[in-house]
Amino acid sequence: MRLDEYVDIEQNKRAERRRLAKNRSYDIVEYLDDFQDRFESTVQGDSLYGGVSPSIFVGTSNYPHVSTGVLSPVGHNDDVSQFITSDTWYNEDISISDVFERRASLLNSTTTRPVTNVAETWDGDGFLGTQREIAIADHPVTVEIGLVNRPNIDFDVNPADVSTPVGPRARAESAALNENPHVPRAVEKTISDDDWNAEGAITYLYRRDFDIYDINTILSAGALGRTDQRRLVPTRWSITAVDDVIGRYLRGRIRTNQDINSVEIHRESFLGNAFWVILAPGEWEYELVEMKAPGSIWNPKPEAGTAITTDWEGREGRTKYVSETAGAYHAARLGVLEHLAQRGRRAKALILRHISADYWAPVGVWQVRETVRDTLDDTPAISETMHEAIDGVCEHLPISSARLHRASTIAAGRQATFDTFT
pTM higher than 0.90 for the full model? Predict the structure, then answer.
């Protein structure tokens, strides 16, 4: 299959997704106004709110004393699963507006706690104990929350934050379960083992087919790791940590596998993001190159041209913080490593991500992870060489081949020194 034919097929396949991304709905403000009405109709008395909680949220501000909360959809207790961030959002062809509306329906009932000594305070702290039970349960649970004030409905959106946006917030003084939640046996095992470090527990749950979104939540609640080291983990950090831990585990699994047979080009787009994944025979090597459209919230100066950020790793990975592409780096890498592990092969991987102006608001790195996963499920185009593949893809990118070769370690065919990344 020629590359141009492959591109045409994929463009037709995702035409509806692009339409959704371009359809910028500004009804979110009206939706937030409606939230206030729904809240007033469900609150009991002056301060008690009862509902079904599908998840939790831990913030980063003022760390190590953080805002930690219970998320509850207001007026939607009949179908709370739609509010849980998961791969189903991608499969639904969800739009950016849909993400914001779903988050705008979630009341974040928060309190402030130190992140440390979580295991010691679970039994004596009703709020943290309830939050943990919500996180480790295998289904959403009913809760009763004592609120100090009415919700603040200013929508919290931060382009620098890789997590899904958080909706209305209210201060809580108490939280209690209205049922005894069921906890999977594997989760009970990780909690009861006092000497199991968090990394081992994360890998254990993943190997037993636990969804990474559930593992994120369990880690965030401080339910994983050695007892004396358990702590609340901000949601944004837990997402990246789980992607990184599982990625390193999978990288070890594929290290001695046979190479793939040819240079493969995979393409997919979602929510104004176009991904090109180029796989080539060879030892593991990975790079994410992000191209950010001028005039977008990611690159606000139109005269600056397309901005480029890159991060790279070699066979042994990296120990230095991923500074340029942040959580997207680990989310995209996980998708590639899962694909190679399932095939029983190894490869070097170059991911080119074009972030267009159609991606007009941040929705979280789940969309990076799920788009890369889906990209690799499709039949690829085949190229004779890595050089030919990169030059062919550049014809569809907003930057020249020469500029990509200057910015990218893999495209330039050079090896950065190990010292650069340690």
Answer: no
